[in-house]
Structure formats: C-alpha cells, structure tokens
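Quick note —
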Amino acid sequence: MHQVNPFPASDFDEWSDSYDSDVVTHDQFPFAGYDRVLESVLSKAAERAGMTVLDIGTGTGNLAKHFLEAGCQVWGSDYSPAMLTKAQLKLPEATLVLYDLRGAWPAELDRRFERIVSAYAFHHFSLKRKVSMLVEMSRDRLEPGGRIVIADVSFPSLPDMQAFAATVGDLWEEEPYWLADQAQEVLKDAGLASSYQQVSPCGGVYRIERA
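Predicted structure written out below.
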C-alpha cells in the first residue's frame, strides 16, 4: 500500500511566496512570537564572527540571515527548492543545500560545525525520531564543544499544550509537537544535556550538547 507523504515539499514550495509575511505579521499559532524565538536561538548559540553554523530547515533564510549578519560562516539546508531559491536571494554568501531530513546526509554537508540550529522544522517528527536525529548530528556533525539550538512549536508539558490548543480553535493542527518535560528526559537518556526556554505561548527553544 502506498504511504501518503504527510508533509510533501510541494506544500512548502507553494507557501514560499507568502511565508515571510505569514510568520512575521501573523502573531498567532504556530508562529506567535516568531522574532523573539529567533532572537533566543541567536542568544543561546552565542554567535561570534567566523563561527561555522548549519541551519537545518532554513526555509527562506530568516534565521540564517541573523548568523550571517553576525559574521558567521553559514550553511543552510531545506527540502523545498522554492524556499531555497528565496533564501539564496537573502543569503548570497551562504552555502545552501537541498536536503530532506528523512533522507541520507548530503555529501555537500559532510563536515563538522560549531553550531547546528533549526527553527520550526523538527515538530513534524515523533519524539523518538527527533532525538535519534539529534544524537546522530551531535555525534557526527558537531565540532568538539559545539552545540545544537532548536526553536520550534513547543510546550512545557501535555496539560500546557492541551490548555493552549483550547484557546486557538480551528487554527490548531495535531502534530507531534515538543513537550519539554518529556523531551528533556529522553534527551538525557540518550546522552544529551539540554536546557529549555518557553519564549512564546507556543514557541520554545532547546539548547542541546553532549553530556
């Protein structure tokens, strides 16, 4: 039986033209506090000039742009060709790679980075898969002493998520969103140390390092 792709790249290709206005001007679920969330990623990454940074799921390049402006060396990946085309216009100095997180690691990114960052990409995956990917990245793609910083749709706990969902009506969509209390326990069991900050009612940021 053919399995339906739950989030095809074509959906994001179609979204690319309005993506920036949607995430910045519509201060509601799932992007409430979008600018503050990205600023938190920058702060937790402790960016500095010359730092090597990989942005996973870079979209139109909004997060990566902050790191370029800070003087970092930036690589970005996304599985939507149209999103990457938009990103390339913003980030002419960045190395951008077409890459689906569900596939094999691309040869163009076969190196280690001081920081791996991501915004609003991991929530499509189960917690088990999220942590599996983070373990692999921390082991194979981080420089010694490096860290991963993930911003995403996230809540402190299941009751918090349920209470929030009740406030947004038809905007709510069921996906395996991060629950910080569960995620941090599983990350710890996998050998990863983490800290968590709830930045907006539906957006949180994780700082993750090898324990």
